[in-house]
Write a sequence for this structure.
């Protein structure tokens, strides 16, 4: 179920699993409508050039809503004051490639209202 608030930010990061290489920067996938690392890697990073802000807040999020489901971002609030996701990085914990069933670390740079 999608959150229903005016201040929600819902972003996804899609990545390929298998065997490959180092850290890969995600690019926008027009079919999925979300950032995607299209090659196998040990880490996938979607930075502010893909996820900055949310919805139409501030200058607006590039390719909003950047999600693979039907959940839309809220468009209320002020950029860098109210909630937004600025970047997402998924990294293999054991240093190997991202593979199905592996443990991963998810790092997200976010703005949280009131902090």
């Amino acid at each position: 179920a999608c959150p229903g608030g005016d201040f929600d930010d819902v972003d996804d990061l899609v990545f390929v699993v298998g065997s490959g290489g180092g850290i890969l920067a995600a690019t926008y996938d027009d079919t999925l409508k979300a950032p995607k690392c299209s090659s196998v890697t040990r880490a996938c990073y979607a930075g502010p050039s893909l996820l900055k802000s949310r919805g139409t807040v501030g200058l607006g999020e590039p390719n909003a809503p950047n999600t693979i489901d039907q959940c839309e971002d809220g468009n209320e609030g002020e950029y860098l004051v109210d909630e937004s996701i600025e970047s997402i990085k998924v990294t293999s914990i054991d240093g190997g490639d991202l593979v199905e069933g592996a443990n991963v670390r998810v790092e997200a740079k976010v703005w949280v209202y009131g902090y």
About this structure: The chain is about 5% helix and 30% strand. Helices lie at 48-51.
